[in-house]
């Protein structure tokens, strides 16, 4: 009888652990590999894509606009409808997301 109780407790403990792992919401943010990031940034500039940049340490997209190359490893993000230009360094960028529409 005690073997059955200990087996049930063990299974219950394992199920609780798996359930906690399944519901873990604090996952690490994804980060594009450097080669892929460079390729996507180059494509966004050459094809004049409107993009969102997700920067390190930020949950939501931080910058949105059209890209142009700045000095060294920096990129200028310009949003013409806002008359605003922002600066992002390559090592700050986690990933690039293409925007298919312009919200007005």
Automatic annotation (TrEMBL):
This is Uncharacterized protein. It comes from Secundilactobacillus odoratitofui DSM 19909 = JCM 15043. The lineage of its organism: Bacteria, Bacillati, Bacillota, Bacilli, Lactobacillales.
């Amino acid at each position: 009888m005690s073997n059955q109780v200990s087996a049930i407790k063990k299974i219950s403990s394992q199920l609780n652990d798996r359930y906690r792992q399944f519901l873990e919401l604090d996952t690490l943010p994804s980060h594009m590999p450097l080669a892929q990031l460079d390729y996507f940034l180059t494509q966004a500039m050459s094809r004049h894509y409107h993009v969102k940049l997700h920067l390190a340490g930020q949950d939501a997209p931080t910058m949105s606009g059209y890209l142009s190359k700045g000095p060294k490893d920096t990129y200028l993000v310009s949003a013409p409808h806002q008359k605003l230009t922002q600066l992002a360094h390559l090592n700050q960028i986690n990933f690039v997301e293409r925007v298919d529409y312009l919200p007005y």
